[in-house]
Amino acid sequence: MKKYVRLVLAFAFMFSIVLTAQDQSGSEGKKCQPKEFKDAQCGRGKEFGGGQRKIVTPQMRADRMTEELGLTNAETVKLKGFFEKQDAIRINRIDEFQKIKKDLKAKVENERKVADAELQKILGNEKFQKLQTIRTVRHEKIMKHPVQKGKCPNQKDVK
C-alpha cells in the first residue's frame, strides 16, 4: 500500500512541476520594463507579444533623475539640454551607420556578382546553373528553420 501512495505522490509532484514549467506567461513578462514603458509589453515584435514602446524623451529622463536625485530646477534644465545633445549625437550616429551599411551591402553585392561571373567562366553555364539551384535550395531550407523567422520554441524571450 505504501508503494502505491508513494507512486501517486511522485506522479502528482511531477505533474505539478510540468504545469509550473509550462506557465511562464505570468507576471514575469512585465518585469523587464522600466517605469516609462508601463504600457508597452516586453518583446521584440508581434510574435513575442510585444508592441510599440513609448519614446523616452530627454524631458522624461531629466524628470526621472530629478525625482531620484533631488535636483534643483537649474540642474534639471542643464540635464535636459545634455540629454537633448546626446540624443542628437545618437541620431546622427545611427544615420551614419545606416549609410555605411547601405554602402557595404552594395559593395558586397558587386563583389558577389564578380565572383559569380568568374565562377561561371570556370564551371560553365550548365554546372553554374546547378550550383545556383543548390544555393537556392540551401537558402530556402535555412529560411524555413524557426530560428530564422524568430519563432523558435526553444528560444527564451530574455530582455
Structural class comes to mainly alpha
Kindly state the percentage of residues in helix.
Answer: 55-70%
Average pLDDT confidence is: 78
> What overall form do the CA principal axes indicate?
flat
Strand content: under 5%
Taken in chain order, the helices and strands follow as HHHHH
Tally the helices: what do you get?
Answer: 5
What's the alpha carbon Rg, rounded to whole Å? 27 Å
Strand count, sense and barrel status of the largest sheet are: none
> What is the strand tally?
0
Distance between the termini: 49 Å
- The figure for the number of domains is 1
Query: Residue ranges: pLDDT <50 for 5 or more in a row?
Result: 27-45
Explain the layout of strands and helices:
Elements: H1 2-22, H2 58-69, H3 73-123, H4 125-144, H5 146-149
